[in-house]
Amino acid sequence: MDIDFIELTTPESLQAVRDIAADIWPKTFRSILSQEQIVYMMNMMYAPEVMEKEQAEGYHFILLKINGSPAGYISWSAYQEKTAKLHKLYLLEQFHGQGFGSAMLREVRKQAAAQGFSILRLNVNKYNQRAYKAYIRNGFQVTESVKIDIGNGFFMDDYVMSCLL
C-alpha cells in the first residue's frame, strides 16, 4: 500500500481532520465515554476556530493518506524545552492492526527529532486499551496518571506516557 504524510497548512485543509474525527471518535469512545461527553469533546477539540488557533500557535496537523485516500491524522506541537507533545493520533478502523499506527508514530517521532526535541509525550485515556497497548509496543512508558477537569462536569482520565526520540 502507498502511504503519504501530508502537512496541513491552511485552515481549509483542516476539514479533512474533522471529517475523519467525526467517523473515528464516536466508534473509539462509545464504550468509554457518554455520548454527551463525546459531543462536548468533539466541539472542544475539533471546532474550526479551535483548530485554526492551534495551527496559528504552531501545532502540526498531518494527514495520513493510504492509496490516495485520507485514513488518519496526527497533531503535535512543542511542549517544553526538549519535549514535544503528541495531541492526537487516530486511524480509521479498517486500517487497524496493519502497522499504520506504528508508521504514524515513527513519522511524528522523526518530525519532532528533526526539530530538536528529544522526548515525545502524550496522554491516552486509561480505558482505551487498544491505544495504550499500541503506545507500549512502540516504546512509550507511563510517567503519571492524571484526571483533568475539562469543564461541563466532564473529566479526562488519562495516563501520561513518554518516550525518547
Record keyword descriptors for this entry.
165 residues; Aminopeptidase; 7-stranded mixed β-sheet
Task: Note down, in words, how this protein is organized.
This protein has a domain at 3-117: Gcn5-related N-acetyltransferase (GNAT) (Aminopeptidase, 3-Layer(aba) Sandwich), CATH 3.40.630.30. The longest helix is centred in the N-terminal third of the chain and has 15 residues, at 15-29. The chain has 165 residues and is α+β, with helices and mostly antiparallel strands. Strand 2 (60-66) and strand 3 (69-80) form a beta hairpin. The protein has five helices and seven strands. Strands 1-2-3-4-5-7-6 form a seven-stranded mixed sheet, sandwiched between helices.
* Percent in helix: 25-40%
Total count of strands: 7
The CA-CA distance between the termini, in Å, is 26 Å
Classified by CATH, the class of one domain is: Alpha Beta
Identify the CATH homologous superfamily of one domain.
Gcn5-related N-acetyltransferase (GNAT)
> What's the helix-strand series?
EHHHEEEHEHEE
Question: Which term fits the overall shape?
Answer: globular
Count of runs of 4 or more consecutive helical residues: 5
Strand order in space, largest sheet: 1-2-3-4-5-7-6
CATH-defined topology of one domain: Aminopeptidase
In a few lines, what is going on in this structure?
By secondary structure, the protein is of the alpha+beta class. It is 36% helix and 38% strand. It has a seven-stranded mixed beta sheet with strand order 1-2-3-4-5-7-6, sandwiched between helices.
